[in-house]
Automatic annotation (TrEMBL), chain A:
SUPFAM superfamilies: ATP synthase B chain-like. This is ATP synthase subunit b. Subunit b, of the mitochondrial membrane ATP synthase complex (F(1)F(0) ATP synthase or Complex V) that produces ATP from ADP in the presence of a proton gradient across the membrane which is generated by electron transport complexes of the respiratory chain. ATP synthase complex consist of a soluble F(1) head domain - the catalytic core - and a membrane F(1) domain - the membrane proton channel. These two domains are linked by a central stalk rotating inside the F(1) region and a stationary peripheral stalk. Its main location: mitochondrion. It is found in: Mitochondrion; Mitochondrion inner membrane. The gene is Atp5f1. GO terms for cellular component: mitochondrial inner membrane; proton-transporting ATP synthase complex. One of its GO terms (molecular function) is proton-transporting ATP synthase activity, rotational mechanism. It comes from the Eukaryota. Pfam families: Mt_ATP-synt_B (PF05405). It comes from Fregata magnificens. Keywords: Acetylation, CF(0), Hydrogen ion transport, Ion transport, Membrane, Mitochondrion, Mitochondrion inner membrane, Transit peptide, Transport. Belongs to the eukaryotic ATPase B chain family. Component of the ATP synthase complex composed at least of ATP5F1A/subunit alpha, ATP5F1B/subunit beta, ATP5MC1/subunit c (homooctomer), MT-ATP6/subunit a, MT-ATP8/subunit 8, ATP5ME/subunit e, ATP5MF/subunit f, ATP5MG/subunit g, ATP5MK/subunit k, ATP5MJ/subunit j, ATP5F1C/subunit gamma, ATP5F1D/subunit delta, ATP5F1E/subunit epsilon, ATP5PF/subunit F6, ATP5PB/subunit b, ATP5PD/subunit d, ATP5PO/subunit OSCP. F-type ATPases have 2 components, CF(1) - the catalytic core - and CF(0) - the membrane proton channel. CF(1) and CF(0) have multiple subunits.
From TrEMBL, chain B:
It comes from Fregata magnificens. The chain crosses the membrane at residues 12-31, 69-93, 99-118. The gene is ATP6. It is found in: Membrane; Mitochondrion inner membrane. It holds the Pfam family ATP-synt_A. It comes from the Eukaryota. GO terms for cellular component: mitochondrial inner membrane; proton-transporting ATP synthase complex. This is ATP synthase subunit a.
Amino acid sequence: VLHTTRALHTAQQRLAPLPPLPEKGGEVRYGLIPEEFFQFLYPKTGVTGPYMLGTGLLLYFLSKEIYVINHETVAAACILSVIIYGIKKYGSDVAAFADKLNEEKVAKALSVKNEAIKDLETAIEQEKKEQWRVEGCKYLFDSKRNNVAMLLETNYRERLLTVYNEVKKRLDYQVAMQNLKRQKEQDHMIQWVERNVAQSITPQQQKESIAKCILDLKALSKTAQAAV
Amino acid sequence: MNLSFFDQFTSPYLLGIPLILLSVLFPALLFPTPNNRWVTNRLSTLQLWLLNLITKQLMIPLNKKGHKWALILTSLMILLLTINLLGLLPYTFTPTTQLPMNMALAFPLWLATLLTGLRNQPTTSLGHLLPEGTPTPLIPALIMIETASLLIRPLALGVRLTANLTAGHLLIQLIST
């Protein structure tokens, strides 16, 4: 069947893009009869042609009893009036509902697209910010480098100070040792001299020295008395 | 031709040609085939919305495997809905008032469910024959009763649809005069 009907497909088979739907449907008069019927009869019968046709047909059916009026006629009239009333009252609402359904469908798809676009735009901005941050990194690195250099310098100086202190301590020790040694030698020598001198003073010398002192004192006392 | 109240239930014939096929297939004309468009005209949108609503209502309680039944159940439901609603208009014939048609719908579907259940899960489907919590002496009687009810089911369903529609349409005709 698929291949036999191939000859019937006269239009080009193209899946997309479909031609757009026409904005309005076919023109209808009284909701049932298409406008083309009136246009078709217009050249021969003018404007009242189709109406005369309709009325004539109806009266023909009724008079010749081709259409019998029975209980269903009443039912038909009632149902028809209810339907027309319903359509007139709620037709636009139903149409708006159908349009709303379509709009929601399209809006959902559009929102997906728009959200994707927005997400990409925020991603672009964030990327630009990151790039700006990278440019600022140079200063960051410089300051960090300065910091590190200062730390190294401080550490170096501290170590120099420590070294200097240690060396000074050792040198002071040596100086103190030498001083102490000399002091000890001096003391020792003084003591030895004193000891020897004390030892060398014999008792004979002691008496002589004491007699001499007494003589000197007497002489002095004489001169002193004279002064007073 | 004077119509009695029961003329709407006679199968229509025109010059000896049975028109029953036409009256069964006519509702298909009211539902245009869905075309390739994504945004359709108002009629198709509304019909698709209705179809989606019905399918959702049918299929939500079922798990994934039960969704195989979606197409046939939804299309059956739409067909019956349209046929029955169209029958309310004057001078129309409702095919579902004919008992043969309802039996033709009921028997295959019922048999299909029964055989599918027996083939895939025989123990569970046989277990449905016994309601829970029956006292032990009643078990044999209950099993026979349940089997009988199972076998009667297509007859019951078919006759139910026929009777409901016939009575409804008749009642509407009676009240309208």
